[in-house]
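thought: fold this chain, then report.
action: predict
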Amino acid sequence: MSGIVAVAQALEGSALAAAMRHSLWLYPIVEIAHIAGFVVLVGSVVMLDLRLLGFSTTTSVRGLARHVLPWTWAAFFVVVPSGLAMFSAHAVEFLDNPALRIKLLLIAFAGLNAAAFHFGVFRTAPAWDRNARVRPAARWSAALSLVLWLGVIACGRLIAYL
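observation:
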């Protein structure tokens, strides 16, 4: 753990961290970008998950995935740097925050779930793309995704209170 603490201390001592702590507007602007990015990221994931759970069955699963995944990735590239910037401001303190630890763990599980879906059952999507019953593995993956992302949102809010 001391290696992680050393990295957190170095990050907290960076110019970015100092700017995040001392600028009146920088932290709130970065936080707004983080939240907006997160809305797009989770919103795009939820749309695909809802389709997999049986909503809008006339919509092509593959077509919807082709439409929302670029938005998911674009949002990811907003959320990660903004999250790191906010973390840098109080990195050592945040290391002890259980909500942040759980949030990061849930994000990791959500990523593994998404990878398992896209490299697994999604490859069979042509058979259940539209107007057909989605495979149980895809439905389970979607349900798990919704639970994980709800947990990430909850933990994100709890960071400020724990």
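thought: worth noting. Residues 38 and 79 are 6 Å apart (CA to CA).
final: tokens above.
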